[in-house]
Input
Amino acid sequence: MKTFSKYALAAACLATTTTAFAPPALSGVVQTTANTQLFSTVDDKTEVREYFNNEGFNRWNKIYSESDEVNTVQLDIRNGHDQTIQKILNWVEADGDIKGKTVCDCGCGVGSLAIPLAQMGAKISASDISDAMSTEAAARAKAMGIRNAKFYTSDLESVKGKYNTVTCVDVAIHYPTEKMAEMVGHLCSLADERVLISFAPKTWYYDLLKKFGELFPGPSKTTRAYLHKEEVVREALKKAGFEVAREEMTGTNFYFSRLLEAKRV
Output
Protein backbone atom coordinates (compact mmCIF):
# COMPACT_ATOMS: atom_id res chain seq x y z
CA MET A 1 0.00 0.00 0.00
CA LYS A 2 2.84 2.39 0.79
CA THR A 3 4.44 1.70 -2.60
CA PHE A 4 1.17 2.34 -4.43
CA SER A 5 0.64 5.59 -2.52
CA LYS A 6 4.16 6.72 -3.38
CA TYR A 7 3.57 6.24 -7.10
CA ALA A 8 0.14 7.84 -6.94
CA LEU A 9 1.62 10.87 -5.22
CA ALA A 10 4.42 11.04 -7.77
CA ALA A 11 1.90 10.91 -10.58
CA ALA A 12 -0.13 13.67 -9.00
CA CYS A 13 2.96 15.87 -8.84
CA LEU A 14 3.79 14.98 -12.44
CA ALA A 15 0.49 16.45 -13.53
CA THR A 16 1.59 19.95 -12.55
CA THR A 17 4.55 20.21 -14.91
CA THR A 18 5.19 20.24 -18.63
CA THR A 19 8.12 17.83 -18.63
CA ALA A 20 5.93 15.35 -16.78
CA PHE A 21 3.55 13.04 -18.57
CA ALA A 22 0.12 14.48 -17.81
CA PRO A 23 -1.64 16.30 -20.64
CA PRO A 24 -4.30 18.80 -19.52
CA ALA A 25 -7.93 18.35 -20.41
CA LEU A 26 -9.04 19.80 -23.73
CA SER A 27 -11.49 22.52 -22.78
CA GLY A 28 -14.51 22.85 -25.05
CA VAL A 29 -13.15 20.52 -27.75
CA VAL A 30 -14.79 17.34 -28.98
CA GLN A 31 -12.33 15.21 -30.93
CA THR A 32 -13.33 12.63 -33.52
CA THR A 33 -11.24 10.13 -35.44
CA ALA A 34 -11.40 12.40 -38.48
CA ASN A 35 -10.10 15.54 -36.85
CA THR A 36 -7.69 14.15 -34.24
CA GLN A 37 -4.57 14.30 -36.42
CA LEU A 38 -5.27 17.82 -37.68
CA PHE A 39 -5.97 18.98 -34.14
CA SER A 40 -2.74 17.50 -32.82
CA THR A 41 -0.59 18.84 -35.65
CA VAL A 42 -1.87 22.41 -35.53
CA ASP A 43 -3.04 22.94 -31.97
CA ASP A 44 -0.09 21.34 -30.18
CA LYS A 45 2.28 23.78 -31.86
CA THR A 46 0.09 26.77 -30.99
CA GLU A 47 -0.38 25.53 -27.44
CA VAL A 48 3.35 25.06 -26.86
CA ARG A 49 4.21 28.45 -28.37
CA GLU A 50 1.65 30.30 -26.26
CA TYR A 51 2.53 28.44 -23.08
CA PHE A 52 6.27 29.06 -23.31
CA ASN A 53 5.76 32.70 -24.25
CA ASN A 54 3.67 33.31 -21.14
CA GLU A 55 3.22 31.35 -17.92
CA GLY A 56 5.50 28.54 -19.06
CA PHE A 57 8.41 30.89 -19.64
CA ASN A 58 8.28 32.20 -16.07
CA ARG A 59 8.10 28.68 -14.68
CA TRP A 60 10.80 27.09 -16.83
CA ASN A 61 13.15 30.05 -16.75
CA LYS A 62 13.34 29.49 -13.00
CA ILE A 63 13.78 25.74 -13.40
CA TYR A 64 16.58 26.19 -15.94
CA SER A 65 18.52 28.60 -13.73
CA GLU A 66 19.96 28.68 -10.23
CA SER A 67 16.84 30.30 -8.79
CA ASP A 68 15.72 29.18 -5.34
CA GLU A 69 12.08 29.87 -6.30
CA VAL A 70 11.36 26.27 -7.24
CA ASN A 71 9.46 23.52 -5.48
CA THR A 72 10.68 19.99 -4.83
CA VAL A 73 9.32 18.61 -8.09
CA GLN A 74 10.78 21.43 -10.16
CA LEU A 75 14.16 21.04 -8.46
CA ASP A 76 14.11 17.33 -9.26
CA ILE A 77 13.34 18.09 -12.92
CA ARG A 78 16.16 20.65 -13.01
CA ASN A 79 18.57 18.04 -11.70
CA GLY A 80 17.37 15.46 -14.23
CA HIS A 81 17.66 17.86 -17.15
CA ASP A 82 21.11 18.95 -15.97
CA GLN A 83 22.20 15.30 -15.93
CA THR A 84 21.11 14.83 -19.54
CA ILE A 85 22.93 17.99 -20.61
CA GLN A 86 26.08 16.93 -18.76
CA LYS A 87 26.04 13.50 -20.42
CA ILE A 88 26.05 15.20 -23.82
CA LEU A 89 28.86 17.53 -22.79
CA ASN A 90 30.86 14.57 -21.48
CA TRP A 91 30.54 12.83 -24.86
CA VAL A 92 31.56 15.99 -26.70
CA GLU A 93 34.50 16.59 -24.40
CA ALA A 94 35.65 12.97 -24.75
CA ASP A 95 35.57 13.28 -28.55
CA GLY A 96 37.65 16.47 -28.35
CA ASP A 97 36.71 17.74 -31.81
CA ILE A 98 33.83 20.19 -31.33
CA LYS A 99 35.88 23.40 -31.74
CA GLY A 100 35.00 25.08 -35.02
CA LYS A 101 32.21 22.60 -35.77
CA THR A 102 28.67 23.79 -36.52
CA VAL A 103 25.88 22.79 -34.15
CA CYS A 104 22.16 23.31 -34.64
CA ASP A 105 20.27 23.16 -31.33
CA CYS A 106 16.54 22.75 -32.00
CA GLY A 107 14.30 23.69 -29.11
CA CYS A 108 17.17 25.40 -27.29
CA GLY A 109 15.10 26.77 -24.42
CA VAL A 110 17.21 29.22 -22.42
CA GLY A 111 20.47 27.87 -23.85
CA SER A 112 21.25 25.10 -21.34
CA LEU A 113 23.12 23.10 -23.99
CA ALA A 114 23.87 25.70 -26.67
CA ILE A 115 25.78 28.02 -24.35
CA PRO A 116 28.26 25.45 -22.94
CA LEU A 117 28.81 24.06 -26.46
CA ALA A 118 29.61 27.59 -27.64
CA GLN A 119 32.03 27.93 -24.72
CA MET A 120 33.73 24.76 -26.00
CA GLY A 121 34.30 26.44 -29.36
CA ALA A 122 31.36 25.24 -31.47
CA LYS A 123 29.59 27.57 -33.90
CA ILE A 124 26.01 27.56 -32.62
CA SER A 125 22.72 28.13 -34.41
CA ALA A 126 19.99 27.71 -31.80
CA SER A 127 16.24 28.10 -32.11
CA ASP A 128 13.12 27.78 -30.04
CA ILE A 129 9.42 28.03 -30.86
CA SER A 130 9.10 30.50 -27.98
CA ASP A 131 10.38 34.01 -28.61
CA ALA A 132 10.65 34.51 -24.84
CA MET A 133 12.92 31.47 -24.53
CA SER A 134 15.22 32.27 -27.46
CA THR A 135 15.48 35.90 -26.31
CA GLU A 136 16.44 34.79 -22.81
CA ALA A 137 19.04 32.39 -24.24
CA ALA A 138 20.54 35.20 -26.33
CA ALA A 139 20.66 37.48 -23.29
CA ARG A 140 22.43 34.83 -21.20
CA ALA A 141 24.98 34.23 -23.96
CA LYS A 142 25.61 37.95 -24.36
CA ALA A 143 26.12 38.37 -20.61
CA MET A 144 28.80 35.67 -20.81
CA GLY A 145 30.56 37.38 -23.70
CA ILE A 146 29.71 34.61 -26.16
CA ARG A 147 29.87 35.70 -29.81
CA ASN A 148 29.85 32.38 -31.65
CA ALA A 149 26.17 31.62 -31.03
CA LYS A 150 23.05 32.83 -32.82
CA PHE A 151 19.63 32.48 -31.21
CA TYR A 152 16.36 32.92 -33.08
CA THR A 153 12.67 32.03 -32.94
CA SER A 154 11.43 29.16 -35.09
CA ASP A 155 9.42 25.98 -34.87
CA LEU A 156 11.44 22.84 -35.45
CA GLU A 157 9.96 22.06 -38.86
CA SER A 158 11.05 25.45 -40.23
CA VAL A 159 14.72 25.08 -39.28
CA LYS A 160 16.90 24.78 -42.38
CA GLY A 161 20.56 24.40 -43.28
CA LYS A 162 23.35 21.86 -42.85
CA TYR A 163 25.32 21.36 -39.66
CA ASN A 164 27.95 18.95 -38.36
CA THR A 165 25.80 18.15 -35.32
CA VAL A 166 22.09 18.58 -34.63
CA THR A 167 20.75 18.43 -31.09
CA CYS A 168 17.18 18.25 -29.80
CA VAL A 169 16.93 17.77 -26.05
CA ASP A 170 13.67 17.25 -24.13
CA VAL A 171 11.57 18.64 -26.98
CA ALA A 172 9.94 15.48 -28.33
CA ILE A 173 7.58 15.34 -25.35
CA HIS A 174 5.57 18.07 -27.10
CA TYR A 175 5.29 16.12 -30.38
CA PRO A 176 2.28 13.87 -31.08
CA THR A 177 3.13 10.21 -31.54
CA GLU A 178 2.19 10.20 -35.22
CA LYS A 179 4.59 13.09 -35.91
CA MET A 180 7.62 11.69 -34.10
CA ALA A 181 9.19 9.75 -36.98
CA GLU A 182 8.76 12.73 -39.30
CA MET A 183 10.36 15.02 -36.73
CA VAL A 184 13.35 12.70 -36.33
CA GLY A 185 13.69 12.52 -40.11
CA HIS A 186 13.79 16.30 -40.35
CA LEU A 187 16.50 16.54 -37.69
CA CYS A 188 18.55 14.00 -39.61
CA SER A 189 18.15 15.99 -42.83
CA LEU A 190 19.93 18.90 -41.14
CA ALA A 191 22.90 16.84 -39.90
CA ASP A 192 26.04 16.00 -41.84
CA GLU A 193 27.59 13.90 -39.08
CA ARG A 194 25.42 13.20 -36.05
CA VAL A 195 22.14 13.77 -34.25
CA LEU A 196 21.66 13.92 -30.49
CA ILE A 197 18.06 13.50 -29.37
CA SER A 198 16.35 12.86 -26.04
CA PHE A 199 12.75 11.85 -25.40
CA ALA A 200 10.47 10.45 -22.72
CA PRO A 201 10.34 6.70 -23.47
CA LYS A 202 7.02 4.91 -23.68
CA THR A 203 7.28 1.90 -21.38
CA TRP A 204 4.59 0.21 -19.29
CA TYR A 205 5.96 1.89 -16.15
CA TYR A 206 6.11 5.44 -17.47
CA ASP A 207 2.80 4.95 -19.24
CA LEU A 208 1.27 3.93 -15.92
CA LEU A 209 2.67 7.02 -14.21
CA LYS A 210 1.23 9.18 -16.97
CA LYS A 211 -2.22 7.62 -16.59
CA PHE A 212 -2.10 8.16 -12.83
CA GLY A 213 -1.06 11.77 -13.43
CA GLU A 214 -4.11 12.37 -15.61
CA LEU A 215 -6.30 11.55 -12.60
CA PHE A 216 -4.83 14.53 -10.73
CA PRO A 217 -5.00 17.58 -13.03
CA GLY A 218 -2.68 20.40 -12.02
CA PRO A 219 -3.91 23.83 -10.89
CA SER A 220 -2.73 25.57 -14.07
CA LYS A 221 -2.79 24.79 -17.76
CA THR A 222 0.41 23.34 -19.20
CA THR A 223 0.78 21.47 -22.50
CA ARG A 224 0.01 17.94 -23.60
CA ALA A 225 2.83 15.50 -23.09
CA TYR A 226 3.73 12.51 -25.25
CA LEU A 227 5.77 9.39 -24.59
CA HIS A 228 7.49 7.73 -27.55
CA LYS A 229 8.41 4.13 -28.26
CA GLU A 230 12.17 3.82 -28.50
CA GLU A 231 11.94 1.44 -31.46
CA VAL A 232 10.05 4.11 -33.45
CA VAL A 233 12.85 6.63 -32.85
CA ARG A 234 15.58 4.11 -33.69
CA GLU A 235 13.79 3.04 -36.87
CA ALA A 236 13.39 6.67 -37.98
CA LEU A 237 17.11 7.26 -37.41
CA LYS A 238 17.99 4.12 -39.36
CA LYS A 239 15.67 5.08 -42.22
CA ALA A 240 17.45 8.45 -42.45
CA GLY A 241 20.85 6.76 -42.71
CA PHE A 242 21.96 7.05 -39.09
CA GLU A 243 23.13 4.46 -36.59
CA VAL A 244 22.96 4.79 -32.80
CA ALA A 245 26.50 5.05 -31.45
CA ARG A 246 25.93 5.93 -27.80
CA GLU A 247 22.96 6.00 -25.48
CA GLU A 248 22.06 6.96 -21.93
CA MET A 249 19.01 6.93 -19.69
CA THR A 250 18.34 9.54 -17.03
CA GLY A 251 15.68 8.87 -14.44
CA THR A 252 14.92 10.84 -11.29
CA ASN A 253 11.68 10.92 -9.33
CA PHE A 254 9.91 13.18 -11.83
CA TYR A 255 12.16 13.26 -14.90
CA PHE A 256 12.66 10.44 -17.40
CA SER A 257 14.69 10.87 -20.57
CA ARG A 258 16.29 8.51 -23.08
CA LEU A 259 19.29 10.04 -24.85
CA LEU A 260 20.56 8.73 -28.19
CA GLU A 261 23.55 9.81 -30.24
CA ALA A 262 23.27 8.65 -33.85
CA LYS A 263 25.95 9.04 -36.50
CA ARG A 264 25.53 9.07 -40.26
CA VAL A 265 26.67 5.83 -41.90
